[in-house]
Amino acid sequence: MTARTDRDDRLRADLASLRIEREPGSPAGGVKRRQRGPARGTRILIAAALVLLAALGAWRLLGRATPVETARATAVEAGSIEPAPVLSGSGYVVTGDRYVSIGVRVAGRIDRYFIEEGQSVRRGDPLVQLDDRDYRAAVARVEASLVLARANDELAAAELRRGRSLRQSGVISDQELDVLRNKAAVAKASIAQLESELDAARVNLEYTTLRAPTDGVVLAKLKEVGEIAVPGGFAGSGDLVRLANLSDMRAEVDVNEADLERVRMGGRARVTPDAFPSHHYAAEVVKLYPQVDRQKGTLKVEVKILEPDAKLLPDMSTRVTFLADPAPDTEQAQRAVLVPGNALQRDNDGTYVWVLDGDRVRRATVETAGDAGERVRIVSGLTGGEVVVVGDAPLAEGQRVAAANGG
Questions:
Q1: Mean pLDDT over the full length of the chain
Q2: Largest CA-CA distance found in the chain, in angstroms, rounded
């Protein structure tokens, strides 16, 4: 009974601890509520501060000039617009006649060179002199034999004349006269044989001096003075000098089969040497090789450089750019404006450029008509003379800007 009483007392104490006391003046049965006034005021202040910051940021964005790079749109005539590139590839400078290797026609020791590498020569100029003493002696020997043969011919002719007189007098027989005729004929034949031998000996003597077969520039001397040069051999072992005709300079490049439709005979091209990237040479396609390289899937194409100069050297690496055909002579082709390619911007509404209007920018929608070198042709939207923004600066209509490069 006592234990049960203790449990009841503890239960009553727990229930008393859960009771909520009413404050004075509160409605009967009401519960004390949390005051929310200060929290709501704080939120209002934070929102006002955010609005103020946003307004300040917008004012700074619109009020401060954004630095941009600019360029001027240029109005040009159709004839002065550079054709658009359609294909480009790496190649090498070559000569129209390739390389002319000059070797000896007769054997001999090299006595001297008349030329040095890099020297220009004309057709017929002496290049190399061989030791010609043996060949001069051969000419002299044949000349002496020819003198002897002519003397024998004169003697045989005189004997034949006397023999004919004696035959008419009956002193000698017909057989003896035939012998005299044969002797005279043999003497004349000996003269003809020796004359041909003399011609051959003189030609061999002339071959001891190697001469330029064409105009060109000496690329290399392949043997040294004192070495023995012999004709023939293999892999050009008898060659002494290598020439190149630099008046007909070309560039060759391998074009992929898939791009062959962009290249045609007589088409225009531009050659840019890697050593002189600021120099461009006008060229035209002059040769399409008749066979495709099966392993590489390419066709070798040659372009002739129309106005070569001393900067171009054989085997120089170069870039060959094939150009589009000239635009048709229409009103649209005659009037065009050129702007840098990085001035164009594109979005869902089309192609446009940012044009400077005072210190603000405005959007100008444009229509393009292909590339003209490093610039783009604009056929509508610009009239020429406008200052346009180049690059990818984030801009908005009416935004204030400042030209970093002076406009």
A1: 83
A2: 202
